[in-house]
Design brief:
The chain is of the alpha/beta class and about 575 residues long. It is built from 22 helices and 21 strands. It starts with 9 loop residues before the first helix and ends in a 9-residue tail after the last helix. The structure holds ligand C2E and magnesium ion (2 copies).
């Protein structure tokens, strides 16, 4: 039973109220006209730690924590005096001294217009507030790093734009190789890396800036306060420097590179979405160049990005529309100038733009995934051509086909190639696959395993553009390859530039030590041919021996050249 106040005649009336509320789930407190506590229910005891007996006769100020703003009490009394009721949030103190937020409803008890007491009911809203705060945090923050997420960023960036109206710098930092790390070392390592990167970056980022993550290894930093591009560039360089060192994760050294794109407000966009999009355009431009660096958005970049999108849209239909074809460029033996094989080179005749260079559209095909169907078509067409030439009586040719990173890592590559060999009756050694060093090493473990499997099918493997990528001897030894192709950048000045002469000579020597054959590509002059033959190159390729040309251009050349030990005039 609730304790009673016998001294007061109001107690009888209060008892009625009190008995109603005794079993209420809410804490209930009743006071008399002088605002002294006359009743408290068990829930109140549970919540505050005070037994009802300890409270009787006290003013409810016994619960005061000093943490409720004085205006709240003023509002409360004004409302109680005027409307006879109030509800709101107060922060109270328990008997043990801890404080908690409570939601309270107070009603004045009126007896013929005279206030005879108050009845207050309240609940502890600490947990609810905690849950709300947590939900708010989850809604606006990334659960892994605790940084603002895309939603939180947008709100803060919008706020900064409206509040400051002054120049802002938006930097988008994208980690490279995160996908590879997730794939090879596992997502747990990838996650730890993201946390470590966030920590390193936050040491560089000024306290006044907005720091967020978009997930997928992308971080956004907004420099607030008047900013110019110099401040943003300094910060960007600082961040790239901070990420330059490896991370130690699970006892393992993990390297990451980053690309940073920057957009300035108001010059590069008036709202959060545009600024972020333009920073992303700038970041992709850095990524294309393939080096850790920073770039600022400019409109030419946007034009390029749009053109690229258009190219991708057009490329989507190119295969079905029959706009793709293969040109074949001969390779000759250094010893006697006979054609010993061809490299298949993809050509795209765009209905409006004419010939589009593979250097331009292969990266688009690679990024959009279109390279998989296109690459399969290239392999199939090149092998069919080789088989057709064999039927025509031209035997012993090798057909080289270029493979991009995505193709090498496609799950069904080996099965696809096996089916191709069977379909066209290709003999061991007849099909050569060319990959660049960076393609082979983009995911070394899987890359090497794929190359081994291809080699086991009887495919010849060549490293294309040698000298322009990693050029690491340690890696080269790991690759199960047969042929090195010296990039034409070194061939161009081989007879005039001492450096290039030395590089070509060293490459030939290295390749031969490793038991590899060497192809020199891009030979245009007799002088280049002369030097490269002198250095011991095994095969030669370039305009001097023949331009890439459609298959129809070759049969009569082939028949002559198979037996004729001199190089041909250009086929085109
Ligand atoms: P790559 O594999 O290094 O091909 C050699 C490039 O050098 C070809 O350019 C060829 O036309 C050019 N070339 C040949 N001889 C000479 C010469 O004497 N002088 C000069 N200046 N250039 C010469 P192309 O056909 O424009 O191909 C560019 C790149 O596109 C290729 O480089 C290759 O990486 C890629 N590519 C071409 N076809 C395919 C394909 O079917 N699949 C994939 N994944 N990539 C391809
Ligand atoms: Mg090639
Ligand atoms: Mg090449």
């Amino acid at each position: 039973m609730l304790p009673e106040c016998d001294s007061c005649h109001i107690a009888a009336a209060l008892r009625v109220h009190a008995s109603i509320v005794e079993h209420s789930g809410e804490a209930v407190l009743v006071t008399d006209a002088a605002n002294r506590i006359v009743a408290a229910n068990p829930e109140l005891t549970r919540l505050t730690g005070y037994a009802a007996e300890e409270l009787l006769g006290h003013d409810p100020r016994i619960f005061t924590s000093g943490e409720t703003p004085p205006e709240t009490f003023r509002e409360m009394w004004d409302a109680l005096n005027q409307q006879g009721r109030w509800e709101g949030e107060l922060r109270d103190r328990r008997k043990d001294g801890t404080t908690f937020p409570k939601w309270v409803r107070i009603t004045a008890l009126r007896d013929s217009g005279i206030t005879s007491g108050y009845i207050a009911s309240f609940t502890d809203i600490g947990k609810r507030k905690f849950d709300e705060a947590r939900l708010r945090h989850l809604a606006f923050n990334d659960s892994l790093t605790g940084l603002l997420n895309r939603h939180g960023l947008k709100i803060q960036l919008d706020r900064a734009i409206t509040a400051e109206g002054a120049p802002l710098a938006v930097l988008l930092l994208g980690l490279e190789h995160l996908k590879d790390i997730n794939k090879t070392l596992g997502h747990a390592v990838g996650d730890q890396l993201l946390v470590a990167v966030a920590e390193r970056l936050s040491a560089c980022v000024p306290d006044t800036s907005i720091f967020a993550t978009l997930g997928g290894g992308e971080f956004v930093i907004v420099l607030t306060g008047p900013q110019d591009s110099a401040a943003a560039r300094t910060l960007a360089n600082g961040m790239l420097g901070a990420l330059g060192d490896f991370h130690m994760i699970d006892g393992r050294k993990v390297h990451t590179d980053a690309c940073i794109g920057a957009a300035l407000f108001p010059a590069d966009g008036a709202d959060a979405a545009t600024l972020l999009q333009h920073a992303a355009t700038a970041m992709y431009a850095v990524r294309e160049k393939g080096r850790a660096n920073v770039q600022f958005f400019d409109t030419a970049m946007e034009m390029r990005a749009l053109a690229r999108l258009e190219l991708e849209a057009d490329l989507r239909g190119a295969l079905e529309a029959g706009q793709l074809s293969l040109h074949y460029q001969p390779q000759v033996t250094a010893a006697d100038g006979r054609i010993c094989g061809f490299e298949a080179l993809l050509r795209w005749r765009h209905p409006l733009r004419g010939m589009v260079s593979p250097a331009e559209f292969i990266p688009v095909a690679e990024e959009s995934g279109l390279i998989e169907p296109i690459g399969a078509w290239v392999l199939d067409t090149a092998c069919r051509q080789l088989a057709a030439w064999r039927v025509d009586g031209v035997k012993g040719l090798r057909m080289a086909v270029n493979l991009s990173a995505r193709q090498l890592h496609a799950a069904d590559l080996v099965l696809q190639v096996q089916a191709l060999l069977d379909r066209h009756g290709i003999l061991p050694g007849e099909l050569e696959i060319e990959v660049t060093e960076s393609v082979a090493m983009s995911d070394p473990e899987q890359g090497i395993e794929r190359l081994r499997a291809l080699r086991a099918l009887g495919i010849t493997l060549a490293i294309d553009d040698f000298g322009t990528g990693y050029s690491s001897l340690a890696y080269l030894k790991l690759l199960p390859i047969h042929v090195l192709k010296i990039d034409r950048a070194f061939v161009r000045d081989v007879e005039t530039n001492a450096n290039d002469t030395a590089i070509c000579a060293a490459t030939v020597a290295l390749a031969h030590t490793l038991g590899l054959k060497v192809v020199a590509e891009g030979i245009e002059t007799e002088a280049q041919r002369h030097v490269l033959i002198g250095q011991g190159c095994d095969y030669l390729q370039g305009y001097l021996f023949g331009w890439p040309a459609p298959a129809e251009a070759w049969p009569e050349h082939l028949k002559q050249l198979m037996n004729n030990p001199h190089h041909t005039e250009a086929a085109q």
